[in-house]
Design goal:
This protein is of the alpha+beta class. It has seven helices and seven strands.
């Protein structure tokens, strides 16, 4: 699930703090995630160690567009109600439900593509966020440039034990990127913080 073990052995000879890296790797492997190692091939350099490789929880597919899904459901019920109450209306209840649920299905399919294209990577050098379907966006920054991080847990996320982590870089007055709807967000945040503290020194070779 997390491509850590294969790179830790190569990194052990380069970093004297072997036990620290193994501790981080062990914690990272304990975090449930819905991704595979192939997602990082184009994002990570050969000389980097992957500490976290994540996607949002699968619940992102229904929780992120919850507002629009509810709006589509209300729209569907309104169309069906009009068909039942107004005799001269140009569609039947069955057609109203078919149209509405087709729109809901299309919205879920699009959100599934959004989920599949979101990848969050923490290495011993960088933080990387990839997102987007038609227009793919990749944000990356060196650990030494991360000024602060924050954890956000909205009500609908807290119900399912999810949360989001935001990152702000030096010279920025706002959060530059978010890792949204993660499982075990506090554990993820702790691993990120410890990794930044350990490997984010501006004097460390890039």
């Amino acid at each position: 699930m997390l491509d850590v073990a294969s790179r830790v052995q190569r990194e052990e000879s380069a970093h004297p703090a072997q036990s620290s890296m193994q501790m981080l790797s062990g914690e990272a492997q304990a975090i449930p995630t819905e991704t595979d190692t192939s997602a990082a091939h184009t994002l990570v350099r050969d000389d980097e160690v992957i500490i976290l490789l994540l996607r949002p929880s699968l619940l992102f597919i229904v929780l992120a567009p919850l507002g629009s899904l509810m709006a589509l459901l209300i729209f569907t019920l309104a169309l069906a109600l009009l068909a039942a109450k107004v005799q001269w209306i140009g569609w039947s209840e069955q057609q109203a439900y078919a149209i509405g649920f087709s729109l809901i299905l299309l919205r879920i399919i699009w959100q599934s593509l959004e989920w599949a294209n979101r990848v969050y990577v923490l290495t011993d050098r960088r933080i990387v966020t990839r997102s987007g379907v038609l227009r793919v966006s990749v944000f990356e920054t060196q650990l030494s440039r991360v000024q602060h991080t924050a954890v956000f847990m909205r009500l609908r996320e807290r119900v399912f034990g999810l949360g989001s982590v935001g990152f702000a870089t030096a010279g920025s007055d706002m959060l530059d990127t978010f890792w949204v709807m993660l499982r075990q967000p506090m554990t993820v945040h702790r691993i990120i913080h410890e990794t930044i503290q350990r490997y984010g020194s501006p004097h460390r070779g890039l």
